[in-house]
Amino acid sequence: MRAAPETVQVVVLARERASALSSRLEELGCSLVGVAASENAAEHAVRTARPDAVVFEAGTAGDGFLERARREDPSCAFVAWLASASSGGVAEAFSLGVDEVLHEGMGQQEVGARIAAAVGRSRIRPSRPLELGPLRIDDLNGEAEWAGQDLRLTRREREVLHALANAAGSTMRREVLYKRVWGYAMARGDRSVDVNVKRLRAKLAKLTGGALEIKTQPGIGYRLEFVGERKPEDAVTAL
Amino acid sequence: MRLALVPRTTEFYDLFTEAGENALETAKLAQQRFRAFPERTVPQGDVKQLEHRGDELTREIVELLNTQYITPFDREDIYELAKAIDDVVDYIENASDLLGLYKVEAPMEQAVEQCRVLVEAAEHLSNALSELRHLRRVGPHVVEVKRLEDEGDRIVRDAIAALFEDEGVDPRTIIRWKDIFEALEDAIDSCETAADLVGNVVVKNV
Fold first, then answer.
1. Contacts of A190 in chain B (CB under 8 A)
2. CA distances to B19, B83, B112 from B23, in Å
3. Right CATH number for B9-200 from 3.30.1950.10, 1.10.1240.10, 1.20.58.220, 1.20.1260.10?
4. What is the reported pTM?
5. Shortest CB distance from A4 goes to which of B159, B168, B174?
6. ipTM value > 0.90
């Protein structure tokens, strides 16, 4: 399924925080979840922030990085960024197991299209269950639980909850949430997100005792909040 | 069939009043259904029942027409008006039915807005029909239905434009909502058609 660059959440693995790579991705409109300076930080980001893609500078990721990071989230796309195009460099990157290879010489349109295509291909891969404290969501098996208790969500409700949980406590715009769950752009006036959030809220209030709430940011979107004592130990934090 | 020579004009007016009220009731029920969907607080079966009642009323008007020698206004106008009110109910029922048929997940804001206009138009049509026996009071309601039809036109144009603003919108969403927007627009248009007929009756008989 094709994704628009502006709806893609990206983690950058680069030697420097303010890299040319980060700037180009931001210019494309990608949502930069964070810039990791090491493989460990990038793996942590994949585990907690659940980005759509990790774009890493050539040479920042060694043997085993992709394997470990993929174990964290099989649906994340891994994209190598080369300073210059060379057949050898491209072939080497693909031999590491990346989903796509980009280089500085590519135009913005091509970079955006290739990232979007890589994310689309990766989404087809089943993701492993998401666990945030008492909350566990397993899309593959269609399960959503709170402290081991079935939340009895519909598929859409579960996917909306999953997307909000992935957003690491930050507000997701309705349009981005729609794109993430439905896979298409949201038409103006479409209330599908609001209707599903409304139903989800009612179920969460009943089955989590108010410990998990979906907050509204008027005119913008929604964010998931853990309320009270039952915050996840492995809370998602900014990188 | 024998034609009755004793005029039963009151019965025509009563039946038109009832048909107008039935159209208004159908519009209100469809509005509730659109607002609440996908919650099934208003099942389509309830809307369908009102549509059946509309069919019965149309049949009663036509039967009365066929048995009366003297009618309160032109026979053709009575027949056309009865059919036009029946169309209003049919179009509303059809639009409401599409929600389930197309497996809509949630209503579009523009469709809810169309329903508001539809209910207002049906209300003025109903008032015009109930005032048919006092011909002079009908005019303002007919004018108001025309204004609402113009408002409905603006809403449907904006609604369809919204479906095509972004190339990434799911084609199924475009297909289902374009149909539903147009079905609601047909219902609003049919109110205007019926109101126009009421207006013509007034012009001919004042």
1. 106, 108, 173
2. 6, 12, 18
3. 1.20.58.220
4. 0.72
5. B168
6. no
